[in-house]
Amino acid sequence: MGHAMPTELSVNLNAIAMLRNRRDLPWPSVVHFGRIALASGAHGLTVHPRPDERHIRFSDLPDIRSLIDAEFPDAEFNIEGYPTEEFLALVAAHRPEQVTLVPDDPSQPTSDHGWDFVADAALLKDVVARLKGQGARVSLFADAEPGAMAAAAATGCDRIELYTGPYGATYGDADAAEAEAARLGATARAALDLGLGVNAGHDLTVANLPRLVRHIPSLAEVSIGHGLTADALEFGMAATVRRFVEACRSGTNASPAPDIVADGH
Ligand SMILES: CC(=O)[C@@H](O)[C@H](O)COP(=O)(O)O
Ligand SMILES: NCC(=O)COP(=O)(O)O
Fold this sequence. Notes:
Elements: E1 8-12, H1 14-20, H2 30-39, E2 44-47, H3 61-71, E3 76-81, H4 85-94, E4 98-101, H5 121-133, E5 137-142, H6 149-154, E6 159-163, H7 165-168, H8 174-193, E7 197-201, H9 209-215, E8 221-224, H10 226-235, H11 237-248, H12 258-262
Parallel strand pairs: 1-2, 1-8, 2-3, 3-4, 4-5, 5-6, 6-7, 7-8
The structure holds 1-deoxy-D-xylulose-5-phosphate (DXP) and ligand LD2JLWAY.
Ligand LD2JLWAY binds near residues 46, 161, 202, 204 and 227.
């Protein structure tokens, strides 16, 4: 499989928002850290507003939109979530370049599975058409199931986002990681053959990105929050984003510094 472009990094700000929400204070600021991320090589910013606003708050969205419009006009805003009318109103108001639809129940601690593209076909076709009509690229959260990609494409979506939680959970076990990455790679090939673009996200790290990118050379974008924020505590935000950008390129023509592959969490 050839690869034209390096994988882009979208920095998920949910974990920064969660730290901020521990106090009734404005720091750490999602706009400040979003600015550092974009200035350090990230292609975009991701938020996943949940109905209880435990991470990103709805009131954060106008400030992130303004940051991109005023200072980083080539960057992308990616808003993720379950398509309730409240979520769709947030999307309409903040004009993200990409919307990632995720089948989250409000009680879930975090996202832990992709869509059932057959059972949810009617909902997805309707919402995908609505969002594309507003000018957004639409990506659908998907499990590593090559056989599900035809039904995903039938929704009219532009891309899938591979749910990489099970891959992230293989840390420390190279054989298990290889098996998961192969399954993700097969799913990506099925999606690409149907004309879909492929994103990926959940529990990605500097350490596990190179293997993923090797298995999916045409991976368009990864969105990363938890592991990246953890590394930012150790290395600082700017250096961390640069390390993740390097790791995104590690499976492609551009080689990362050797320590990026050997080190990391
Ligand atoms: C869609 C997805 O995979 C998630 O990783 C999500 O965006 C993370 O959200 P939280 O940080 O709110 O758990
Ligand atoms: N879409 C997945 C995402 O934004 C990343 O989440 P995380 O698991 O890295 O926090």
